[in-house]
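We modelled each protein-ligand pair independently. The example shown here corresponds to the propionyl Coenzyme A entry; the chain sequence is given first, followed by the ligand as SMILES.
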Amino acid sequence: MLFTLHCALSDYEVFTNEADNVRMMSILRTLIISMANFIMKIVPKMLNLLVPRRFLACAFSSSCQPDLGAIRRELDKFEGGTVDLKMDEQSGVAVMTLNNPLRLNSMTGRMMVDMADCITRLENWPSGKGLILTGTGGNFCSGGDLTFVRKALHYGAEMAAFQHDALTRLLNLPLISVALLQGHTLGGGAELATACDYRVISPSAKVGFVQIKMGLTTGWGATTRLVHLLGRQKAISLLTSGKVMAAEEALNEGLVDHVLPYSLASSDELGECKKWLIANYCKHDADLIQATKKSVIYADLNRDIKVSLQHERDVFAKYWGGPAQKAALSANIKHK
Ligand SMILES: CCC(=O)SCCNC(=O)CCNC(=O)[C@H](O)C(C)(C)COP(=O)(O)OP(=O)(O)OC[C@H]1O[C@@H](n2cnc3c(N)ncnc32)[C@H](O)[C@@H]1OP(=O)(O)O
């Protein structure tokens, strides 16, 4: 580049006499191209020195996909607690339980991996209708396990990518899901609750997006889900206040859908929640429930009304004239 500059300047002295405008323009063009090439070469090198390589790769590559397998192997090293799944074939309702009771079911890396595996099993459960997400020992979840959090301070973006994938899959299960909020539901715990279709709360429970008080924003996708669920204003209010709400306030805010009666022992609340789920959403045929939920997800993700209606028609045509409709017609049902 310096060589080009030198040649260009010496040429300039010669040309002042000849006033050869055409050659002057050509020299100027060479100069500009050389400078541009120089900048294009040096800027990425400087950025490479200043910013970690993995961030650059993500920021500049349009094909950047997090390697979930590698993240999973890393998260699995942060032990403590489990997430357990029971699938009841008879009722079609599964119970997924956060199990880290000494730390109020706060989530370790291992639990995140467990939960992702449970979700994979639920994605492939054709006779399933519903899911209850609950915590053991009278608490839902007090957020990220702070022992894990302290060890994983270098691993936030990766953990968030893993949780975004798992919790989006949870939200989009073809089952009707409900989070049973008991005791404490804080931070990441409140985020988990927003990855279910509904939230049922114990009258003595408390729930809050306390991330802001921990110097954080949401890492497990709750901001995106809250805006869909409650709209911008309420999302801003819950997330920026970090307020911890009692059951009635959470109901008034629209965050929860049902408050359980006061009369129940904590151990009976799971049974009551199951009754609520079945009575409201899981009475009918599993195949129809799954088809309905899938259509709702499709409509939500494809806001183009024509595309969504076409899909709805296709699903409808599959059931029209089918055995379930014929059985219902024969039964001569009165919908009183
Ligand atoms: C991913 C980003 C996030 O989730 S940010 C939010 C992280 N969560 C928190 O900061 C919650 C911190 N914990 C608390 O505020 C209190 O423990 C709450 C939940 C209010 C319960 O208070 P209290 O009923 O008095 O119980 P306690 O404090 O004695 O707790 C019992 C034992 O559980 C533990 N615990 C609780 N939460 C966590 C957590 N998130 N991570 C790790 N451990 C947790 C407490 O340390 C306590 O343990 P220990 O009995 O002292 O050994």
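The longest helix spans residues 21-50.
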